[in-house]
Specification:
Layout (H helix, E strand, L loop, with lengths): L2 H9 L6 E5 L4 E4 L5 E3 L3 E7 L7 E8 L3 E6 H8 L7
Antiparallel strand pairs: 1-2, 1-6, 3-4, 4-5
Length: 87
């Protein structure tokens, strides 16, 4: 994956939440553009704290070479009738 591919998703207006899928099967939901930073070789994704609104629990490092796909989160809801798949 190229850094520009991730930036394209982040720069869309209005912003559309998306999922980053990794080669090891791990997925990261990016629901706000400010929770994702793009570098030359990696994407850093802030994982929101479920107990404290507005804070992150941790920041995960995602090597661009291991990103297999990115998909809009809203398309999954349409397909599954509103049910969210756990990743």
């Amino acid at each position: 994956m190229r850094p520009e591919d991730v930036r394209e998703h982040l720069d869309r207006r209005p912003f559309e939440p998306f999922r980053i899928c990794m080669s090891d099967g791990q997925c990261y939901d990016v629901r706000h553009p400010e929770l994702c930073m793009v570098g030359r070789s990696a994407v850093y994704v802030g994982v929101p704290d479920p107990e404290l609104s507005g804070l992150v629990l941790r920041v995960d490092h995602c090597a661009l070479i291991h990103i297999t796909r990115m998909q809009p989160l809203n398309s999954e809801r349409k397909r599954s009738g509103g049910k969210r798949r756990r990743g």
